[in-house]
Amino acid sequence: MASFASNSGSSAADQMGRYILDANGERIKLVSVNWYGGSDVFFVPMGLETRHRKEIAQTIRDMGFNSVRLPYSDQMVIQNPVIDPVHLGANLDLLDGHNEDNETGELSGPRALDVFQACVEALTDAGIAVIINDHITNAHWCDGMNLCDASWKNDHLGPLCSIRQTTQSWIENWKTVMAPHVDNPLVIGADLRNEPRGLWGTMTWDALASASEQASEALLAMQPNWLMFFEGVSSANDVSGARARPIKLSIPNRVVYSSHVYAWSGWGSGVPFGRRAYASFAAEMHRNWGYLLAEDIAPVWVGEFGNGRNMGPEDLHYWKNLMRYLADSDADWGYWALNPWKPGQIDETYGLLKKDWKTPRDDVRLEDLRNLMGSAIQ
Q1: What share of the chain is helix, strand, coil (3-state, %, to 5)?
Q2: Rounded to whole angstroms, how far apart are CA atoms 82 and 73?
Q3: Contact 317, 38 (CB under 8 A)
Q4: Domain ranges of the chain
Q5: How many alpha carbons fall within 13 Å on the CB side of residue 366?
Q6: pTM of the entire structure?
Q7: What is the pLDDT of residues 330-348, one digit of tens each?
Q8: Is 58 in contact with 47 (CB distance < 8 Å)?
Q9: String of b and e for 317-332 (b: at least 16 CB within 10 Å)?
Q10: Which fold has domain 14-376?
Q11: pLDDT for 56-100, tens place per residue?
């Protein structure tokens, strides 16, 4: 695995043209996996009831990944609830110092932000870089159906949203989440908002870029070496707006663009990617984000893509096309997901681990991902 050297409190300390660089000026290729749960209904990265967080971190490293995208919800930050110990069965050390209140019978902690921070530290102690991600406003599975979660803000929707948020409160949540990690050199940055979207083109690139710049400046004031990850519009599919209106920050070389690519993506053209010939697929990738790499403008991290372990013909077709394009473009990437199940122990067919949270599913997906890792593994 490539190492993340550090200086001035950050390891992936720069970007130049299309590459992310470490503090020594050497390229770091992010080969990431998503470890979700903090953004969902139980407010905690999943698997902690089964294995210790340090063991999960070591498994991630052993699988060859050098970085993790770790999602949270704004509701998690706003409410910061006490975590039910049932979700921490293999991490009982997190209960130390949190005793049951004799009068109320309620636990005094740990709270969601405590557990989230402990997971971040377990990953970075294992030498894994962490990109923290604001995944959703309301804590639940991101199905794209709730308008209150479509954007970083929802105050324009009034009483429709139970968790209400303005641009400024979104930024304050970010500052709360990132504050404990200012001096952790392996927390390398912030993936500012998951899959921004709107009805019938109402989510514009200009609006997203302006709000994201505001959030970035607030975070860079805390730690100027953090990288800022900017997802595209249309549920992170489309970063083409950066050509005419690039992200501009007061500190140079901190911008990484991010796209998500699934078999059902590409709905804007009416032809999902699972049905595209490679030439059509590659042309769409180039238009959406590949031009940033081909023209040496900025790095692109494909922060989400994935497939079920039992691929149908369209799924396999998409997968082969994407593996080819990621190899040809040499893009950074993050697979969705590590988890073997969703909340409620619903089978996560996209998961790379079996239900013991230890054993990888050594199928074509992991084989192909390891081939993509290439020089990122040493």
Answers
A1: 40, 15, 45
A2: 15
A3: no
A4: 14-376
A5: 18
A6: 0.94
A7: 999 999 999 999 998 899 9
A8: no
A9: bbbebbbebbeebebb
A10: TIM Barrel (3.20.20)
A11: 999 999 999 999 999 999 999 999 999 999 999 999 999 987 655
